[in-house]
Here is the input.
Amino acid sequence: MHPEPLTGETSINDAVSFELTGAAGLIAIDNPPVNAASHAVRTGIRQAVEALQDMSAVKVIAIYGKGRTFIAGADIREFGKPPLDPWLPELCNFLEASDTPIVCVLHGTTLGGGLEVALACHARVALKGTRVGLPEVTLGILPGAGGTQRVPRLAGIRTALDMITGGKPVSAEDALASGLIDRISEGDPRAVALQSAQDLLDGTLPNRRTGALDTEPDPTALDEMRKKLARTQPLLFSPQKCVDAVAASSLPVTEGMKEERRLYEECMASPQRAGLIHAFFSERAVSKIPEASATPRAIDAIGVIGGGTMGSGIATALLLAGLPVTLTERDQAGLDRGIATITGNLDGAVKRGKLTAGARNDILSSKLKTSTDLGALSEVDLVIEAVFEEMSVKREIFEMLDKVCRKGAVLASNTSYLDINDIAAITSRPADVIGLHFFSPAHIMRLLEVVVADKTADDVVATGFALAKRLKKIAVRSGVCDGFIGNRIMTFYKKAADYMMMDGASPEEIDTAMRGFGFAMGPYQVADLAGLDISWAANKRRAATRPAEERYIPIADRLCENGWFGRKTGQGFYIYDDTGSRPNPEALAIIDAERDKAGIAPRAFSAEEIVSRFMTAMILEGSRVLEEGIALRPIDIDAVFLNGYGFPRFRGGPMHTADVIGAAELVRRIEDYAREDAWYWQVPALLRQMAENGGSFAETNDRG
Ligand code: T1G
Here is the structure.
């Protein structure tokens, strides 16, 4: 029993405190960084409300958050651990049942369990700029503290379905319009809490028990959403469960809550939940690098060399982040092409509502400068070179940059494969040289491989990561090798696909199997999109050093020799025209001819075997990338493939998938496949060790 505080705050625990102001009891949540609804927060809220309910002076209670946001959800770090009382759904029911009216003040990004706490209160006030949402589906679950039952009661079934199956936050204005909140206010959370408590007491804020409201039935909306999800997310488990839960909101609230809990537990038990939560934390943990304590260099003006697809995409990403860019090209024609591509990218952003027409015009008129003279880059803080993937061309440019750029400027290359140490060695300032490997389209793809050469300075690495944060990209640290983390592993598993193609599987069968596994596109669709000429050039570059033991499949080369480079030429492994795409019969004929030449009798491959070989190859090379220290941790490989290669997010990434398969099974597979090709299928020492001692990749993730 807490005595009536005369003045000031009383702490329940480190995360929650309360105070009495007149007839109002104010409860403050303070659990940095995002006020996650941890056990301490739940216990604190409950005990604070109980304490205030026991005080005769208290006529109304207000709950608010300190720091940058109100509760941003349940504490995801507690998932998978035995739940501790009070559970969030119980706390919400307790708040709703309170005889003392409770108003909740929202600010920042009030998400998941945070919004559910607010929905269980008797009134909700949001500060201007607040965003509210139920992103649980992005974690493979559904709102499990009454969100699926209370949102339909306040905002209707259609809004509930959009919010809960989409997971995207909405603005305070949209939340007010839909009835989710009662008012938008300005000021600091505590002051607004005090005013709102007063308004709830004197009736200028509606005082309602959400659970007591009825849900307007809307079977059409439910049916339409089921059909839409079956079409757009056929492989995902929780979205349909979200619809089932919202459908239960037409039941009496206690039954609906029971049904929500049952469906929530089903999602919690799904491996997709583990994969999606692994993805969530991986993308945040990859920023924990050895160089993190170094101070990034100031980046206020950037030079981009090359107006091709990558150079223009990189320039667009920088301009969209508000950074001034100087684009250089060898000649005016190249500059005009670059400006046209950048303008097209910006127009696309205006169409997608990511940019206003006014901002677009301002960018083109004031933020983008162009020149055919590298000297124009003498004062920039960072240069990103994005020219043709040829070492001699890149070394020539870096030699010139070394002369023209100011002292302390960061010199970066967007090379996808080439040796950054070799590029750095041509300069007198290798400590300032780094790889910044963007992915196409560079203004959309979230991944940035930050490639650290032997002499790259710590503050230059930190600068790469700081730039990524400004561009809202996920930076992953990579060491130097042919293709860094992503392209190196892709080059290796693509061989496994080529071997299956040569041995009997068609490109379409392989692509279909990998789409069935969850990839947006299969490897041959990706090859056609990226351009077969890119890997053709790489194959030619590697021909001189290719080991004699390595099995080489020349099929793609044959297509290129015919001038078929994929989508950009209208044909590759597939034909592309106005009717869409379909397998290229001439490519299939070339495959048959190459099999005959090699004396191969084609055999059938099941989708299961295709996936098994493809994933085993990906994990095999991933293990080597870890052994060599090219990637710091398995999560770095996962973050690369989730954000740069379309790896199905619900599977968590290749190394998370490796733990699902198990090291022993992976070793068994590799040894089995090695009977066909012992050179390609070799068990990495790391994997064998894991198989022998029952280890997992997850165990090694905390080693940064
Ligand atoms: N639990 C635990 N830690 C969290 C967290 C959470 N819900 N949200 C963020 N963090 C950590 C994050 O790992 C990072 O830690 C730091 O906070 C800053 O995050 C019953 C069951 C709120 C929009 O899904 O979307 O409620 O790396 O780098 O870019 O129905 O974090 O510094 O050590 O992302 O400014 C639903 C998840 C949970 C929201 C802030 N809620 N979070 O973005 O910072 S499920 C969510 C976010 C649920 C109930 C169910 C974002 C953010 P570290 P950050 P940010």
